[in-house]
Write a structure and sequence with these properties.
By secondary structure, the chain is α+β, with helices and mostly antiparallel strands. It contains seven helices and four strands, in the order βαβββαααααα. The chain has a four-stranded mixed β-sheet. The longest helix is centred in the C-terminal third of the chain and has 36 residues. It is globular.
Length: 215
């Protein structure tokens, strides 16, 4: 059984895990657009932001890297900047990441990992079928909790972007670009993120309530 280890740095990944790679569209937003959006999102959340950490990775992604509950950094990849084409979209993504920070997902994640580590040690003594069943059960339970965090961060991020003066459709449009370019999480009990289509449906309904038709 794979044993859970609490690392010094816990990474809460953004938006989705990439399951299929496809070439993103031409570069559309630069660092100034990202930096400006991050400042507005942080201000709306009542925080003084540290600078964004830019990564050269081609896969579109953003994440919060925690060292503790109050020490963290926000990372954005070049691939994400190439995929998106409006301030509203990056604001939605950054609002989602701020959700992980403000909703205490670091502390919840540490608590969960401690629990599964203890359970894993007990099940490991049983061996055989019991050990396998325990590993599968823990994977499913962990992924379910993480999915709840992602949905919470989606809701928080969409609301925060609106508060910061951005379109309520920003996160939906960003997520749709992920899907349309081949970056999509499929339904599976072992995926830590909710299925992309399910998230899009939820975000679309929320955006319609907040701001009418997509522009």
């Amino acid at each position: 059984m794979r044993k859970n280890v609490i690392a010094a740095s816990l990474v809460m990944c953004a938006v989705l895990f990439v399951t299929v790679f496809a070439a993103p569209s031409a570069a559309a937003i630069g660092r100034k657009v990202v930096d400006d959006a991050w400042k507005r999102i942080a201000a709306a959340a009542g925080m003084e932001p540290d600078p964004i950490v830019y990564e050269s990775e081609k896969a579109p992604n953003a994440w919060v890297k925690f060292q503790s509950s109050n020490k963290f950094s926000v990372h954005v990849t070049q691939g994400l900047m190439q995929l998106l084409d409006s301030p509203d979209e990056i604001a939605g993504i950054l609002g989602h990441e701020m959700g992980h920070i403000k909703l205490g997902h670091y502390n919840k994640g540490v608590t969960r990992n401690v629990g599964w580590s203890v359970l894993g040690a007990v099940l490991g003594k049983a061996g055989g079928a019991a050990e396998i069943a325990g590993a599968v059960g823990m994977s499913l339970a962990e992924s379910g909790f993480s999915r709840e965090q992602e949905v919470e961060a989606d809701d928080y991020g969409a609301n925060l972007a609106i508060k910061a003066g951005y379109s309520p459709w920003g996160l939906y449009n960003a997520m749709k670009k992920f899907r349309d370019n081949g970056f999509k999480t499929e339904p599976s009990g072992f995926n830590s993120h909710p299925p992309t289509d399910r998230r899009l449906q939820r975000l679309e309904e929320r955006a319609k309530r907040a701001g009418g038709a997509n522009k």
